């Protein structure tokens, strides 16, 4: 049946994207721990289903804003993983020329308007992007990813009200991995949570199991369709779990090991793998997809280590046109 | 050439830019009602609610939405109402707008204007009277312009709108109703080019923004012929013109409304000393505010103000050394 095979193909594509994100981040964490990738990375391992389930419903012209944990969003939106790996290594050819690193991953060619080192900062940016889309009469929407920690920042309240007020084409995606950095978010958050806060501002909210990519995909498809039809902003509260610590150096000793282990049993990739096998997709085909993803990212990492450092002039470029800095004497 | 107020010159310039470019739009509080100084009067009627957008009192999102809209190819004019309220949107200005082009390796630009009416405005007290230019000139990525005349208010606003850099436009609250001659066809002004308001060999006087007419009057009252420069933009600023004049006069006075300590006058003086050497000046002085908040009561506020009489005294002091 053509419909079923299309659906299977779509699910295989989502599995491939999730596997690529996981492989990318495993290489990134390993490179960081080996001292090859400078700075820190914030891995989203375990959360891939949210990025992929949402972005499976976006078009190239659609924009996304992201967080400090943004590799998955970028890859799911179609960013060049090789250029991202170069960026994480601070090398020439990185998607930001080596000037942004992991926390500022961006690929404007696919509408990925940037990861952000400030919690919640993408929310106002997404609102303005949607206003520009409307002013230019573009056929596009904006998906705005942020974490559960962001709901305690002022721009969250401002942005929900703003988007609802102007009925902007924005899908707000609260990627709720349970932790605001090292602190369990429920321990520092009063009231009924992200969805209740969004609805208080007039943004309809849907809660979904973020560790089930098919559930995320289904919910996002519905919300995106409403937004494209002019229904105004929508809110998706996707509950998931961050397998790693806040950064690649955080052992996450503040939470019970059993809790983290239980999250691995709910693995979004494992669940889709099982669903595909139940639908008759050969285990060997799935294994090949995962092996290809690992080989691709290992190759990107090796290429990054072999790549040149940026020309030092890059440190002084792209600051501003008027009053640009001069090379030091 | 026509005589008009600072607010009317700025209003007219924005209207002309919005007619020229359909991607120019403005967002901020009370814009449909004309803005609190009348600098948006009538624009909502001409351009509609999609381009003159009255917003909630949500400074972070006014600023941050301006950035998002710039990254998607429009040219927003971001109205902060008064400069003090920018402090509620400092992350969006300093860590987002000023840095996006750089940290994303040139993939996007924040081609937008942030209008910040700043400084003392009769008895507005400590939270509505601040001059923040030194905070802003310190931030790589920002252009900082500070008009002191109606003609420059129009020329710098046009330049700011057309600039591909983010431009902070510091509009002096005290001068909104001040009148001046404005050309019928105002051209965008280049950033970093000072206006020489007076000529003379006794000293080099540097100022900007609300202090421009005060300094011009004070120098006249002193009866001493000086070079007077209205910088018009603070980053970039016209170091060449100031250094050349100071080399000739050997005396430098910088006057600004902001607190003297760590004010932009310190940067001007430092750069002149670096250019001329430690023995290059016979006299150097900064005239600014004491390191105190601005008080409410009229006589107390006046004690903080730069007046023509204080400028004249400073000019005499500097010229006599």
Notable characteristics:
heterodimer, A: 329 residues, alpha/beta, Rossmann fold, five-stranded parallel sheet, two-stranded antiparallel ribbon, 11 helices, 7 strands, 9% strand, globular, B: 321 residues, 2 domains, seven-stranded mixed sheet, five-stranded mixed sheet, 12 helices, 21% strand, oxidoreductase (chain A)
Concise account of the structure shown:
The complex is a heterodimer of chains A (329) and B (321). Chain A is α/β, with parallel strands linked by helices and 329 residues long.
Question: What would you note in describing this structure?
Answer:
The complex is a heterodimer of chains A (329) and B (321). Chain A is an alpha/beta fold. Chain A has one domain: Thiamin diphosphate (ThDP)-binding fold, Pyr/PP domains (Rossmann fold). Chain A is 45% helix and 9% strand. Chain A contains eleven helices and seven strands. In chain A, the strands form two sheets. In chain A, strands 1-2-3-7-6 form a five-stranded parallel beta sheet, sandwiched between helices. A two-stranded antiparallel ribbon of chain A has the order 4-5. In chain A, helix 8 links the parallel strand 6 and strand 7. In chain A, helix 1 packs parallel to helix 11. Chain B has 321 residues and is of the alpha/beta class. Chain B folds into two domains: 181 residues, 3-Layer(aba) Sandwich (Rossmann fold), CATH 3.40.50; 126 residues, 3-Layer(aba) Sandwich (Rossmann fold). In chain B, strands 3-2-4-5-7-6-12 form a seven-stranded mixed beta sheet, with helices on both faces. In chain B, strand 13, helix 10 and strand 14 form a beta-alpha-beta unit. The longest helix of chain B is centred in the N-terminal third of the chain and has 15 residues. Chain B is globular, with a radius of gyration of 19 Å. The termini of chain B are far apart. The model of chain B has no long low-confidence stretch (mean pLDDT 98). At the A-B interface, helix 5 and helix 6 of A face helix 3, helix 4 and helix 5 of B. Chain B: InterPro entries: THDP-binding, Transketo_C/PFOR_II, Transketolase-like_Pyr-bd, Transketolase_C. Chain B: One of its GO terms (molecular function) is oxidoreductase activity. Chain B: This is Alpha-ketoacid dehydrogenase subunit beta.
């Amino acid at each position: 049946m053509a419909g079923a095979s299309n659906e299977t193909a779509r699910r295989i594509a989502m599995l491939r994207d999730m596997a690529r994100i996981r492989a990318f981040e495993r290489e990134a964490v390993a490179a960081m721990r080996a001292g090859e990738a400078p700075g820190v990375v914030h891995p989203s391992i375990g959360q891939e289903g949210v990025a992929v389930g949402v972005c499976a419903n976006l078009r190239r012209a659609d924009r996304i804003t992201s967080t400090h944990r943004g590799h998955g969003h970028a890859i799911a939106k179609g960013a060049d993983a090789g250029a991202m790996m170069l960026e994480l290594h601070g090398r020439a050819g990185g998607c930001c020329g080596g000037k942004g690193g992991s926390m500022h991953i961006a690929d404007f060619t696919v509408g990925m308007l940037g990861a952000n080192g400030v919690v919640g900062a993408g929310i106002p940016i997404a609102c303005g992007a949607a206003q520009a889309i409307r002013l230019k009469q573009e056929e596009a929407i904006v998906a705005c990813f942020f974490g559960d920690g962001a709901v305690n920042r002022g721009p969250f309240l401002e942005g929900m009200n703003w988007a609802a007020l102007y009925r902007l084409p924005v899908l707000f995606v609260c990627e709720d991995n349970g932790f605001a950095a090292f602190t369990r978010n429920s321990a520092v958050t009063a009231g009924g949570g992200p969805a209740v806060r969004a609805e208080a501002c007039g943004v309809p909210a849907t809660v979904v199991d973020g560790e089930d990519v098919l559930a995320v995909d289904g919910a996002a498809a519905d919300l995106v369709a409403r937004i494209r039809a002019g229904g105004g902003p929508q809110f998706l509260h996707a509950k998931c779990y961050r397998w790693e610590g806040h950064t690649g150096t955080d052992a996450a000793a503040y939470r019970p090991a059993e809790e983290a282990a239980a999250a691995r049993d709910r693995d979004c990739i494992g669940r889709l793998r099982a669903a595909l096998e139940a639908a008759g997709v050969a285990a060997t085909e799935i294994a090949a997809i995962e092996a290809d993803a690992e080989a691709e990212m290992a190759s990107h990492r090796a290429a990054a280590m072999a790549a040149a450092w940026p020309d030092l002039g890059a440190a002084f470029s792209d600051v501003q046109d008027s009053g640009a800095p001069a090379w030091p004497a | 050439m026509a005589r008009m107020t600072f607010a009317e010159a700025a209003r007219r310039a924005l209207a002309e830019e919005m007619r020229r470019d359909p991607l120019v739009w403005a967002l901020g509080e009370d814009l449909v009602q004309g803005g609190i100084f009348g600098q948006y009067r009538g624009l909502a009627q001409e351009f509609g609610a999609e381009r003159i957008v009255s917003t909630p009192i949500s400074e972070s999102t006014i600023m941050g939405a301006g950035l998002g809209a710039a990254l998607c190819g429009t040219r927003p004019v971001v109205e902060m109402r008064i400069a003090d309220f920018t402090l509620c949107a400092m992350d969006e200005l300093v860590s987002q707008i000023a840095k996006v082009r750089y940290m994303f390796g040139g993939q996007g630009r924040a081609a937008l204007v942030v209008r910040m009416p700043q400084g003392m405005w009769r008895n507005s007290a400590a939270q509505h009277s601040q001059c923040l230019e030194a905070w802003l000139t310190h931030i790589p990525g920002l252009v900082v312009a500070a008009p002191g005349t109606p003609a420059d208010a129009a020329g710098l606003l046009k330049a700011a709108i057309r600039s591909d850099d983010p431009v902070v436009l510091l509009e002096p609250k005290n001068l909104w109703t001040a009148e001046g001659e404005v050309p019928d066809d105002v051209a965008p002004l280049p950033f970093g080019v000072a206006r020489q308001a007076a000529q003379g060999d006794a000293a080099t006087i540097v100022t900007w923004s609300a202090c421009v007419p005060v300094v011009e009057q004070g120098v006249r009252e002193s009866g001493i012929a000086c070079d007077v420069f209205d910088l018009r933009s603070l980053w970039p600023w016209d170091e060449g013109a100031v250094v050349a004049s100071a080399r000739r006069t050997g005396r430098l006075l910088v006057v600004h409304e902001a607190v003297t300590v760590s004010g932009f006058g310190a940067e001007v003086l430092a750069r002149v000393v670096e250019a001329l050497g430690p023995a290059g000046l016979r006299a150097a002085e900064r005239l600014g505010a004491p390191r105190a908040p601005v008080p409410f009561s009229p006589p107390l506020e006046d004690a903080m103000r730069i007046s023509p009489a204080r400028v004249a005294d400073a000019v005499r002091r500097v010229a006599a050394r």
